[in-house]
Design a protein that fits this description.
about 325 residues, alpha/beta, TIM Barrel, about 15% strand
Length: about 325
């Protein structure tokens, strides 16, 4: 496993990280979650990403139980705030940030998180209030560094322009061969301001693994076939997308790796990406994805992949 520095922080994070959206505490039983967390450590994955909203606290609680007993400096732990936890608990107000960090720390069974991220931008709360509250919890020792997910370039710049507040070190956008929107504005701005990307859905919910064949029913053990984990996949299972992805398989063969590894290596070719977050319901999936770290693939193969997907990728 290779490691990269996370923005302007002193954190070194594994190029492949373990996420928990739709999995632990939701679609994957506790024993399966435990096996995946154990496998992550065995593979050298040191970065674990979750959020208070995943299962409305369930993912944090499962991870809290599974991480107890491991040296706290052996992993980098990230969680998030913003998405509703109840009809009244939501957003990035000062009240919510202080309330939700304490609740997350209790569920995670830790005194601090390494990275606390704004899950989205809160248009109903002044940015100054949000940034001041985030600065307070950093200086209280509850959080080491702060980040954001899916903020626009103007929102990122506005935060960077505020004086006397803690600086963001991470951005968590969706990014993959099929979703390249951050390349236009977010990645260049972040690269210039000491912010790294930790990207979600680098395999487009598993579509870039090649497991979903055009015209066929999704495999029974796949995310698309799961009632609890497949609800966000309809946009990726379109025939034109699956047909284009099929054409990538010979490129992965030429590179001597699986299609999943090829797609992850493409994401990691971007210097501003510190880590690609993958979900896993089985240790074998994690082992395959972790092997993408450090892969050296001919840039011509990546260019050919981009050309194949040009008509279906979101730019």
């Amino acid at each position: 496993m290779k490691y990269r520095q996370l923005g302007a922080s002193d954190l070194q994070v594994s190029e492949i990280s373990l996420g928990s959206w739709l999995t632990y505490g939701v679609g994957v039983e506790r024993d399966g979650a435990a096996a995946c967390v154990d496998a992550a450590f065995d593979l050298g994955i040191n970065f674990i990403d979750t959020a208070n909203a995943y299962g409305r606290g369930a993912a944090e609680s499962v991870l809290g139980d599974l991480l107890v007993g491991r040296p706290r400096d052996s992993y980098v732990l990230a969680t998030k705030v913003y998405v509703p936890m109840s009809d009244t608990d939501k957003g990035l107000s000062a009240v919510q940030i202080h309330k939700q960090i304490d609740a997350s720390l209790a569920r995670l069974k830790t005194d601090y998180v390494d990275l606390y991220q704004c899950h989205r931008y809160d248009v109903d709360t002044p940015l100054e209030e949000t940034m001041t509250a985030l600065t307070e919890i950093v200086r209280q020792g509850k959080v080491r560094y702060i980040g954001f997910s899916e903020w626009s370039a103007p929102q990122i710049q506005a935060a960077a322009d505020l004086p006397w507040v803690e600086r963001f070190v991470s951005s968590q956008p969706q990014y993959s061969l099929l979703w390249r929107r951050p390349e236009a504005k977010v990645i260049p701005l972040c690269a210039a301001t000491g912010v790294s990307q930790i990207v979600w859905s680098p395999l487009a919910q598993g579509v870039l693994s090649g497991k979903y064949a055009p015209g066929h029913t999704p495999p029974k053990d796949s995310r698309a076939a799961s009632a609890s984990m497949g609800q966000m996949m309809n946009n990726w299972l379109k025939p034109e997308i699956l047909e284009a992805v099929e054409k990538l398989k010979p490129l992965a063969d030429a590179a001597g790796c699986t299609l999943s590894q090829f797609a992850l290596a493409w994401v990691l070719r971007e210097p501003n990406v510190a880590s690609a977050i993958v979900g896993a319901s089985r240790p074998a999936q994690l082992a395959e994805n972790a092997a993408a770290s450090g892969l050296v693939i001919d840039s011509e193969l990546f260019s050919r992949a981009e050309s194949i997907l040009a008509g279906v990728a979101r730019m």
